[in-house]
Amino acid sequence: MTLLSRAVLALVWLLHWLPLGVQAALGRGLGALFFRLAGSRRRIALRNLELCFPDKPAAERERIAREHFGWLGRSLIERGLLWYASPERLKRLIHVEGQVQLADESERPVMWLVPHFLALDVAGAATQLFQQRWVASIYQRQSNAVMDAAMRAGRLRFGRGEVFSRQESALPLVRAVKRGAAFFNLPDMDFGRREAVFVPFFGVPAATLTAPSKMARGLKMTVQPVVAEFLPGGAGYRVRFLPPFTDWPSDDAEADARRMNEWIESEVVRNPSQYLWVHKRFKTRPEGEPGLYTKR
């Protein structure tokens, strides 16, 4: 497994030298192969789309899923750009919009709220390339030690941030924010019932973290939504630093979770094929409800 992982990383490193348009074509091809062969992930994506867009015809949902796998393939192939390309090349490829320097200018600590679109690692690179504030983030530790080390090294290579494992206590992250770091927060995955409430996501009750609201309120943070996307072919990437929320967080963490999901819904409707549909967003169910991913 170690040798295979190192071989994969070597291939990713080699591919990053190719023009982005070539990498994009390879990624789309890889995604088409995944759609055919990765049956369990294909079923999860199609089920999520069925739950979130029940009024769309099945053929339309399948079209979105096929496009999604194409973007997913790109996200894997183009990971080498984010991990190995020069900062100058990345700055040419990443097109930032909006208040990218809000964290630099804010007197209060900033939380970037970054939903799981497939280009979210591009947003992570943008926060270190286009502004000066130290960046703190949380990541899911990988079971493969070689890939885990590569992921950490890739995300930290600009020397402007630190990452904390989700399996650790939140205290090191809180200390980093108090020292002046901005928090790159990925809030929209199903991590179980702990620190979560069930609020609608496209009308389906979804276990949604209350920690973003509670942390932002406790540390008096300014919350700025950030959304990243792939552009077609070799055009690069777009990262939108949106205006900060004016009335979030409130003193009601459950209401904040509901409003956060509503905002993410609006962004998914804007760009449905690039949202992370292969994640079991509705895996955790309210007491007494049956699972939503059982084979039918």
Give a brief description:
With 296 residues, the chain is an alpha/beta fold. The chain has helices at 2-15, 20-37, 39-52, 58-77, 79-84, 87-93, 102-105, 120-129, 145-156, 171-178, 211-218, 253-270, and strands at residues 94-98, 110-113, 135-139, 161-165, 182-185, 196-201, 204-209, 222-230, 237-241. The chain has a domain at 87-274.
Question: Which helices and strands occur, and which strands form pairs?
Answer:
Elements: H1 2-15, H2 20-37, H3 39-52, H4 58-77, H5 79-84, H6 87-93, E1 94-98, H7 102-105, E2 110-113, H8 120-129, E3 135-139, H9 145-156, E4 161-165, H10 171-178, E5 182-185, E6 196-201, E7 204-209, H11 211-218, E8 222-230, E9 237-241, H12 253-270
Parallel strand pairs: 1-9, 2-5, 2-8, 3-4, 3-5
Antiparallel strand pairs: 6-7, 8-9
Helix pairs in contact: 1-9, 2-4, 3-4
Any key phrases for this structure?
9 strands; 296 residues; membrane; 7-stranded mixed sheet; alpha/beta; two-stranded antiparallel ribbon; transferase
